[in-house]
């Protein structure tokens, strides 16, 4: 995250061109992927409510309120506009589950990282060993795992479980970082953010939406692996821009914009502008690599990468309007 004094000064000038942070982001973020929305969004939203209620996750009024202003089915619809209704429902359920799980882990981990261990170990045991759940969160995860196995091929389901376990492990890293915030530099922040992004578990579902399963040579191609990393980073860093105000007020550490602010000791609008430039370079690299490898890909491979691009696009359009990040519109863009 090397940034020159000239870049910081230029970012400060850019920060005066918008009324609020959302306008600042809109004016500077490079978004080559147009807005799309799945026509089954309303059905998925109703399905999420039923699924969360079935496993008792919205019995807590605070969780129910969080889901209402987070709108997981809307995020799924923006990310996966071409998916059939059945697969979209799995995506929407998983997004909802991860929001509940992430918020619970953050709350528990702030008190002590060690308190997270039973919660995380239960998830790993379910995902890795097929162990029976002992909590409502575990029961929901076990059911989600069942849905994935029923819809995906064995290899796709295995990739889903692997990526999901990495996300679970990442939450412990985040809790440790929050407890020792003075030791978290920008590079470490980005590393942890990539672990807790929770985006890559959805890529096997993008693959499942294609006519054919990708060959091992195609899915493990070095360029394909790089595209996966670039798209996941861009997809999660974009909401970081819109959530920076919320995270700053809550004392959050693992956020790209806040990492820039800590590193350069600048205002939040300047930090957001610097973060946008980093995201823009990531999206442009994704575009360039996709253009290079696309002639070599099968139709399913093309669809798979389009699914990755969908997460970049969807996270942007969802973040702009979701009530969860409404503070962005109230935050001034000036210095």
Automatic annotation (TrEMBL):
Gene3D superfamilies, alphabetized: Farnesyl Diphosphate Synthase
Matches recorded under Pfam families: Terpene_syn_C_2 (PF19086)
InterPro entries attached to this UniProt entry: Amorph_synthase, Isoprenoid_synthase_dom_sf
Transmembrane annotation, as ranges: none
NCBIfam families for this protein: amorph_syn
Protein name as annotated: Sesquiterpene cyclase
Classification lineage: Bacteria, Bacillati, Actinomycetota, Actinomycetes, Kitasatosporales
């Amino acid at each position: 995250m090397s940034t020159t004094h000239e870049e910081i000064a230029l970012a400060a000038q850019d920060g005066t061109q918008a009324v609020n942070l959302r306008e600042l982001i809109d004016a500077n973020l490079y978004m080559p992927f147009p807005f799309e929305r799945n026509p089954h969004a309303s059905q998925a939203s109703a399905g999420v409510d039923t699924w969360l209620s079935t496993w008792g996750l919205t019995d807590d009024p605070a969780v129910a309120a969080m889901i209402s202003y987070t709108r997981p089915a809307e995020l799924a619809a923006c990310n996966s506009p071409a998916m059939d209704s059945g697969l979209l429902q799995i995506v929407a359920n998983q997004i909802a589950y991860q929001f509940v799980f992430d918020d619970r882990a953050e709350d528990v981990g702030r008190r002590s990282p060690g308190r997270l261990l039973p919660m995380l170990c239960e998830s790993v045991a379910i995902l890795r060993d097929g162990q029976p759940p002992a909590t409502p969160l575990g029961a929901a995860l076990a059911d989600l795992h069942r849905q994935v196995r029923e819809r995906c091929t064995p290899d796709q389901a295995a990739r889903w479980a692997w990526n999901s376990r990495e996300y679970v492990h990442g939450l412990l890293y985040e809790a440790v970082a929050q407890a020792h915030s003075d030791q978290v530099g920008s590079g470490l922040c980005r590393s942890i953010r990539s672990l807790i992004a929770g985006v890559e578990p959805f890529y096997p579902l993008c693959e499942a939406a294609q006519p054919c399963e990708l060959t091992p040579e195609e899915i493990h191609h070095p360029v394909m692996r790089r595209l996966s990393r670039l798209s996941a980073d861009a997809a999660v860093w974009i909401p970081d821009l819109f959530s920076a105000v919320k995270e700053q007020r809550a004392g959050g550490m693992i956020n790209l914009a806040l990492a820039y602010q800590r590193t350069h000791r600048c205002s939040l609008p300047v930090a957001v502008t610097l973060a946008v430039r980093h995201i823009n370079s990531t999206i442009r690299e994704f575009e360039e690599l996709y253009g290079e490898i696309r002639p070599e890909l099968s139709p399913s491979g093309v669809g798979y990468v389009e699914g990755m691009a969908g997460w970049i696009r969807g996270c942007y359009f969802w973040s702009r309007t979701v009530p969860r990040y409404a503070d962005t519109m109230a935050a001034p863009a000036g210095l």
